[in-house]
Prior knowledge:
Beta-Lactamase
Amino acid sequence: MTTNQRDRYLINSILRASNVLRCFLGEKTHLKISELARELQLDRSTTYRILLSLEKCGFVQKDKKTGEYSLGLGVFEIGNTYLKQMDFIQVSKPVMAELAAKVQETVHLAVLSGAEIFYVDKVDSPRTLGVMSKIGQRGPLHSTALGKVLLAFQPENDQSRIIRKIRLTPFTPRTITSKQKLVEELKAIRKQGYSLDHREIEQEVECIGAPIQNHLGNVIAALSISGPQRKIGTPQEKYFVAEVIRAAGLISSKLGYMEVKE
């Protein structure tokens, strides 16, 4: 079926209602019938009937004092349901693939699971030799870039509760084994917006992690790149950090997060 053939089945009243709703997406969020009619080039009577129907469904609401209309709770409910049904892993996949190709290193996606991290996705390094890891594998919080960034952005009470449960197992001479030092590093991570693993879990491997935020601004996952110390820990570190932050920010924006700039 061609586009023209499909167009014959479209319902004009629904299209008009959709256009009315989209008028509220601009800077002005409260509009009068006359303004909407003028914007959509409709007569007042048609515009009024559309608004009355949308109000009945809860998609717009009318201010009785000013006569202005604004979006209603029904729009929020539908939008919120849409955000919930989005699979952040699927949203992340193309961004992870692009990042892996760009930096030529392994990219991981993980979530917080109790007092550990849980790897939910991975894109292997395009190079022959990459970091050995598996989707579904668990890892420590205190010695991985993913774990530290996930822990750093937890609410203070949750963070304290989780730290009490962590066993600060030393994997290398560089592993953090002091809870006080861990807390200090988490504060720094939260301030700078990314985390580093300088050979803290594997002798020759370094990682850079950044948080992924949902539409509410909550950190729901973390993204990282992992590679040999001789490459990640070079003067190029700033470049790698910027790329990981950019990729994590792109995923967050696809999940509805809007950064508030001060």
